């Protein structure tokens, strides 16, 4: 079961976090919600009767966690004086996310404009699908489709290029190039 949860985490972490961030603007709250989701998944994975419905089940669980977050509202906020003796824990773990993101940016430039432009507008300019659709004179669904396809293409190129070692949070802590792949990108 532990291996199954790790596999689910690796395969769905980024996708679910992205989904949460579309509903919750606070990045730290989004990360907290994602953690809650995987705790729920860990505790109730046996209840999933049909493994082919895993993705739908994950999204339903995530959506419920977002609803719970908004229901809690401000009730869960702490006053500053309640934290007087609490010390932050520094995370010494270094990851390679920034290094890989630079590599991804160069890969992104190689995508056809039809996919590259909507993804850049969405990720770097923080435009909404409706704004992208209007700017590029395409439909709303086409904007979503192009961004999704761009991500899939980038993931395929990245996975073909390198093998990754991730920490429990999905951060890249090490990677190596695949020897049989000739990489023209500036990854190490």
Automatic annotation (TrEMBL):
Example GO molecular function: sigma factor activity
Residue ranges of domain RNA polymerase sigma-70 region in the record: 15-74
Keyword field: Sigma factor, Transcription, Transcription regulation
Signal peptide range in chain numbering: none
Domain of life: Bacteria
CDD domains attached to this UniProt entry: Sigma70_r4 (cd06171)
Family note: Belongs to the sigma-70 factor family. ECF subfamily.
Alphabetical list of NCBIfam families matching this protein: sigma70-ECF, SigZ
Name of this chain's protein: RNA polymerase sigma factor SigZ
Protein species of origin: Clostridium fermenticellae
């Amino acid at each position: 079961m532990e291996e199954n949860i790790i596999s689910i985490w690796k395969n769905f972490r980024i996708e679910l976090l992205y989904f949460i961030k579309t509903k919750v603007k606070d990045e730290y709250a989004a990360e907290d919600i994602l953690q809650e989701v995987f705790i729920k998944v860990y505790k109730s994975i046996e209840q999933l009767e049909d493994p082919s419905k895993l993705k739908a089940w994950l999204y339903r669980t995530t959506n419920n966690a977002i609803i719970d977050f908004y229901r809690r509202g401000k009730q869960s906020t702490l006053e500053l004086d309640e934290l007087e003796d609490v010390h932050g824990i520094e995370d010494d773990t270094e990851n390679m996310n920034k290094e890989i993101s630079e590599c991804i940016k160069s890969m992104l430039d190689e995508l056809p404009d039809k996919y590259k432009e909507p993804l850049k507008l969405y990720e770097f300019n923080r435009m909404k699908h409706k704004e992208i659709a209007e700017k590029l004179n395409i439909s709303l669904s086409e904007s979503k489709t192009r961004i999704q396809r761009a991500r899939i293409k980038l993931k395929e190129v990245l996975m073909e290029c390198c093998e990754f070692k991730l920490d429990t949070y999905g951060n890249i802590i090490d990677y190596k190039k695949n020897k049989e792949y000739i990489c023209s990108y500036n990854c190490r």
